[in-house]
Automatic annotation (TrEMBL):
Source organism (scientific name): Brevibacillus reuszeri
Highest taxon above the source species: Bacteria
NCBIfam families named among the record's database cross-references: FormamaseFmdA
One of the Pfam families matching this protein, by short name: FmdA_AmdA
UniProt xrefs under InterPro entries: FmdA_AmdA, FormamaseFmdA
Protein name as it appears in the record: Formamidase
Sample GO molecular function, one term: hydrolase activity, acting on carbon-nitrogen (but not peptide) bonds, in linear amides
Length: 393
């Protein structure tokens, strides 16, 4: 087993860990460990909520979760010799659940506290608990379903430079200003409430907490991309914006459907990652990898061969309003069509079907963006994950 460079105690919040991690992006958050290029090491991670969700049938913890706490990340990891303009090469060698924590959760977030992709249809909180059986998972809250997971970090990225951080904050403030009273908000702006910044304290903590970006969205540094195929065997090329790169990670998922549509998406879990890192000097300019990371997927994923595919087009599902080539509306309709079908085929409630789309390895696709005025998106559900034949008869 590789050396464990970052350990977590699941019974303690992140700020009380022997080596605290962080839940904000800022170039001045100090690194917790340092490694040389070529190093192989293990990082342990808490679940993204910092242990706020319990293994029970009560969704009130999903309803009341403190979203200013998320995401708690392990790191930063300083990579010796990495400089701005380089590419940081990260290989995900292996990934798994922590011993005695072989379960995870999924949830629909309430409109008043985060919301979700289908918030207009499912505004209330709901929760499902998933038990791990090796590579498979089942849930007492979604009977008749069993599937193989593709474990991956929902969030992994490098620290932004001061200039990049300023750009993030400026553009997100401008967005919020267009509708400042919206529920849920258009973006999560910096706040010191529930900030965790490693071992920083006092005036330096207060300064950074007021400037640091939330970890909620994906950005140019990678971050919360929620890409299910970023799993074992994946190699990622991160643009380096600060000395040492300052790599951080967390928000592990046992499985996830494309889109992470319930927001508390995938099957959230605590776990560990085995990583290998290297540096390509001057790689950003050499390969023109500047704006976002690039990755090569690994060879490990569930092999499902038969799917039931649901289509959606860019017409509003209730008003009938025509949208022009809007893939967001089209994918929403594909999800809603799948949910309505599963309510009949499996006897699920809408909430159960919705949580299945967030957890099972469903495939989302942009099928067409050329035939005006309708974009077309598809959502494909593997049929063998069910204990019965769900095809129309």
């Amino acid at each position: 087993m590789p050396e464990v460079l970052f350990r977590v105690d699941l019974n303690k919040p992140m700020e009380e860990q022997e080596t605290p991690g962080h839940n904000r992006w800022h170039p001045d958050i100090p690194a917790t460990v340092s490694v040389n290029p070529g190093a192989v090491f293990r990082i342990e991670c808490k679940d993204w909520t910092d242990g706020q969700i319990s293994n029970n049938d009560d969704p009130s913890d999903i309803r009341d979760v403190n979203l200013n706490r998320v995401h708690v990340l392990s790191g930063p990891v300083w990579v010796n010799g990495a400089e701005p303009g380089d590419l940081l090469v990260v290989d995900i060698l292996d990934i798994g659940a922590l011993q005695n924590s072989e379960w995870g959760f999924n949830g629909i977030f309430a409109r008043e506290n985060g919301g979700c992709f289908l918030v207009d249809h499912y505004p209330e909180a709901a929760k499902s608990i998933w038990d791990f059986h090796g590579i498979y998972t089942t849930s007492r809250h979604l009977p008749g379903v069993k599937f193989a997971g593709i474990i991956h970090p929902g969030l992994i990225g490098t620290a932004p430079s001061h200039q990049l951080l300023d750009r993030w904050n400026r553009r997100e403030r401008d967005l919020v200003a267009t509708n400042p009273e919206r529920v849920p908000p258009l973006a999560n702006l910096p706040t010191s409430h529930s900030a965790v910044l490693g071992k920083l304290q006092g005036a330096e903590f207060e300064r950074i907490a007021k400037e640091a970006a939330r970890t909620v969205p994906p950005r140019e540094n990678g971050g919360n991309c929620d890409i299910k195929n970023l799993s074992k065997g994946t190699r990622i090329y991160f643009p380096v914006h600060v000395e040492g790169a300052k790599l951080s990670m967390g928000d592990l998922h046992f499985s996830q459907g494309d889109g992470e549509v319930t927001f508390c998406g995938g099957i959230e879990m605590a776990g560990w990652m085995d990583l290998h890192v290297d540096v390509i000097k001057g790689g950003m300019a050499k390969y023109n990898i500047v704006n976002n990371p690039v990755f090569k997927p690994g060879p490990v994923e569930p092999h499902y061969s038969e799917y039931l595919v649901f289509e959606g087009i860019s017409v509003h599902e209730t008003t009938g309003q025509q949208y022009y080539m809007d893939t967001n509306v089209a994918y929403r309709n594909a999800c809603l069509n799948a949910i309505e079908y599963l309510k009949t085929a499996m006897g699920f409630t809408g909430e159960q079907a919705y949580m299945l789309l967030g957890t099972a390895p469903v495939e989302g696709r942009i099928a067409g963006v050329v035939d005006i005025p309708n974009a077309c998106c598809t959502l494909s559900i593997p049929t063998s994950i069910f204990d019965r034949n769900i095809l129309p008869k």
